[in-house]
Specification:
The chain is α+β, with helices and mostly antiparallel strands. It contains 4 helices and 6 strands, in the order ααββαββαββ. Strands 1-2-4-5-6-3 form a 6-stranded antiparallel beta sheet.
Length: 145
Amino acid sequence: MSVGDMLVATVPMARTLNLEFLETTAERAVVRLPDRADYHNHVGGPHAGAMFTLAESASGAIVIAAFGDQLSRAVPLAVRAEIGYKKLAMGVVTATATLGRPVADVVAELDAGQRPEFPVEISIQREDGAVTGEMTVVWTLRPNS
């Protein structure tokens, strides 16, 4: 089962928004939000909450892809998030997530008994390539007790 399939199966909101997981690797996650009228805001584009969920889901996908081998000893949790809406989003939008720290550095902190934190940077784009939003989600790997 792919990371995207697993997230769609276990995260009801990903199913609700019909998110499409196009790429899920430890280097990059790409997730698409389809253009549906019931996801629109008052100006006819995707609602801000739908775009937040899209970007957060992309960040979760890369975290699972990068740290899935650590799940027996730690739980990934989002700590905080900040989003900036840059341009009007219309139609299909795609979120691309990248890790802000090397995987090995995060795992080394976990190995040392720490609770590492690391940012995931996400860019949200329209089909014409224009960046409509940027988000940072800070994640942690909370060691199992």
